[in-house]
C-alpha cells in the first residue's frame, strides 16, 4: 500500500463520522454562544482544543459558576484519555519525526484513534510511512468539519429550532466509538462500573462525579486484568 493509497483509505474509513462531527460541532457552537462566549472565543476554544467532550465539560461548569480551576481540572480529567491513546499509538507511529508526532497529537480525536488502531492491529504489514499517511487521512475530513460546524453553530445557532435536539450526537458518538473497543472482561467491567458510578455520583456538584467515576472504572478494570493474569499463571 502506497502512502497516497493509505491516505485515501484513512479518509474513506473516517468519512462516516462526519455525520456525528457536524451536529456535535454545531451543538458546541450554539452552547458556547449561549454560555456567553463571543465568536472569536468560541472558535479559539474549538481550534486550540479539538476535544468536544472536554469543551462541553468546561462550558457546563462555567455556566454553573464553578471556579475556573475546577473547570480546567475537570476538562483535563476528561482529556486524560488522550494520553492513553498516545501510548497505544506509540508502537505504530513512534518512528515519526518529533514535529510530525506533535502535529498528530494536536489532531488526535477519538474517531481517528479508534479507526487507526483497529486498522494497524488488523494489518501489521503496513509500512511505517503508510501508517503515518493513514493517520492523517483519518483526520483530513474530521477537523475541517469540526471547525466549520463550530463556526456555523456560533453564527446561526439561535435560529436552530429547539425540537431538533442536536445534543443526541454526544452520546451516540461515544457509544459508537466505545462499543467496538470492549473486547475483554476487564473492558466490560470497567464500562459497567463507570456507568454505575456516574449514576451513583450524579449528586456531586460541578459534574465532579464523572472524573471520579472514570478513575474508579480504570482502577477496577486494571484490578480485573491483574486477577485474570494471576488465574492464568496458577
From TrEMBL:
Membrane topology: Multi-pass membrane protein
Signal peptide: none
Family of the protein in this entry: Belongs to the AzlC family.
Residue stretches spanning the membrane: 12-33, 39-62, 69-90, 102-120, 132-149, 155-177
Keyword annotations from UniProtKB, A to Z: Cell membrane, Membrane, Transmembrane, Transmembrane helix, Transport
Name the record gives this protein: AzlC family ABC transporter permease
Entries under InterPro entries matching the protein: Brnchd-chn_aa_trnsp_permease
Subcellular location: Cell membrane
Entry-linked PANTHER family: INNER MEMBRANE PROTEIN YGAZ (PTHR34979)
Major localization listed first in the record, in broad terms: membrane
